[in-house]
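Researcher: I've been going back and forth with a colleague about how Helix-turn-helix domain-containing protein might be arranged in three dimensions. Neither of us has a model we trust, so I'd like an independent prediction. The organism is Streptomonospora halophila, in case that matters for your notes. Sequence below.
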Amino acid sequence: MHGPMLNTVVDAIGANLLSVWAEPPDPAVRCNGVVIHDSAAEFAAEPGDLLLAVGVDAAGAPDVLEEAARRGAAAVVVRGSAEARERLGTLARHAGVALLALESGTGWAEFSGQLRGLLTTSGAGLDAEASAPPVRELADFANALCESVGGSVMIFNPQQEVLASSRLADSDDAMRRQAALDQRGPAWYRSRLREQGVYRRLWRDGDVVDIPAVPEHGINRRMAVAVRSGDEILGSIWVAERGGPLPEDAPVVLRRAAASAGQYLSRMGVRTQTRRRAAESAARRLLDGTAEDEALEWLDVDRDRPAAVLSCVFADGRPHDTRAFADLLSVHLPALDHPAVPVASRGRVDVLLCGVEGRGGAELAGAVREVVARAAAAAGCAVLGALGTVVADAGRAPESLAEADLVLRVLRGRGGAHTCVVHPGEVRAAVGALVLADRVAEDARFADGPVPDLLAYDRRHHTDYAASLAAYLDAFGDVIAASRALHVHPNTLRYRLRRMGQICGIDLDDPDERLVAALCLRRSGLDLRTRGAAEAQSRA
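Model: Here is an independent structure prediction for Helix-turn-helix domain-containing protein. You can compare it with whatever you and your colleague have in mind.
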């Protein structure tokens, strides 16, 4: 079995933990295992192994690099000072092996665990002992809790995916059986829980949540509690009645169970974190248009199925924690019932939505609106969301991203202050005007003319003629409306319009002149939108 490519591993682990001191001779080299180098034992690396050179000093590094290259290791990982980088990097390049450096402050055991978790999620062949115990122990824990509380137990991650469950019994209700089959449970029931505020109480209140039965659907009463590590939510434990009511002390038992479950979920969290980083790295390359088929395989995405991109920015324009917002989106994205991968970058979060066949832009935007509204409410800030066009296959995701970028530019230009999600069909004319304005900026024939001359005059004399012209054109020649938008007297605007002819020679009676001027002003960011186009807001 083949693991991920080395560059995928580096991207997934992150530059804050791992630096590349020497690139691999073969960019497509894959990582199949993790081996810790022991200088007192026989050299154990095999082709495709990541060799962790624990305790290897500068004197012993050349021999380790030479032997690792001879055995076909994917890379050697060292911990060295910045001063050693050039020397060790040169040695690695000469030997013909990639060299990575682990940042100070990160333990080898923690780093090894992250690597093993990452390779395990990719299907690489590691020994079962390194990856299986947390899952087995969590299943044993669920069965023990089931015996203690007398109800059917399921343990979920924050995305409401089943991590472990107690053994099925004849008295389990249909919902419990359905969740065991599809590992999440029916979408309509999860929607019902969201509407009733169950998830909000679960994540925010920190206590046991009591969920009433739904007899008409054969659903028994349930109790749930979040599993936390400090402020971080690791997952949740759900107990369903079976054969009789839950005991009176069930909430007490659940609180204690949540405290104990943290150790198991924390261990599994290493694997979850590395898997998420790897998925994010693959999605980022897909959005950049640089992904190979490996990215789609890693994401478990069918290239031939339709896809779309959602782009989110913060409405106030101030710096926010995009990683935290991406995590909030991850909690709510499963409600869409489509594979979705949020990619956090500086100032924005892009979400790759896959398998969206059968949903047009308006329908998909309606579903996405709910997700963004809930995440924005949890974050406590307004978010502008732009949904790109639905493209025929995931390989064309960059096209959807480009369309979402245009929609975001429109929303920013309108100065929206409320959470909203807009798709291209809702702002088609504004997007078209942006595209035309961009073409104008790219054409050298528009570098000179009335508007460039007017802008240059404003810069030299600290005047506002260009803004006055933009308001006049946007108001379709209505001096009263334009002067109101500019907060000046109508006669002041009339004077400015006369002066413009003298300054730049513009003929406002010529419709072609007005059209070109409007496009040039739009490209300069002087579209005041005095007509006050309605802003599409979230139903929330």
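Researcher: What would you highlight for our discussion?
Model: I'd start with this: The chain is about 45% helix and 15% strand. After that, consider the following. Confidence is low (pLDDT under 50) at residues 122-133, 528-540.
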